[in-house]
Known about the structure:
Layout: H1 6-9, E1 18-25, E2 28-35, E3 43-45, E4 49-57, E5 60-63, E6 68-71, E7 76-79, E8 86-89, E9 94-102, E10 108-111, H2 122-130
Antiparallel strand pairs: 1-2, 2-9, 3-10, 4-7, 4-9, 5-6, 5-8
Amino acid sequence: MLVFDLGIEKVFNPQRHVEKILGKVGEGDVTVACWEPGQCSPNHAHPNATEIYFCFEGGGVMRTPTQTVDIVPGSFVVHPRGELHEYSNGPQRSLLFRVRYGEDMSTRSKDWPTNADFKPKPEDAVYFAAHPNG
């Protein structure tokens, strides 16, 4: 059994959102993701892992190529393997609980519209050339 207190585990950074892996279970991990107002993730996918988010406090917007949904406390989002997605935090600090499971937790980042300095890794560019929507 693993037990965590998100209030104790949370870590915020004004430069970039923080994803702190709290533990590993079988073929997955559990994470607390901490977001300052306005922070945004890159548009990314996990080709070999399912990713699940639960909004504990705060909230924002989750986007996929076909959907945009508001995330509020109590929201629960499941991204199947390979689904392209990004999260944009709202006007207050947010605390998301994340569970990932699969044989490989690697991330492929396509773009990051809110980060002018972002350049995809060559292997990520190759992946998205073959899989434009994740």
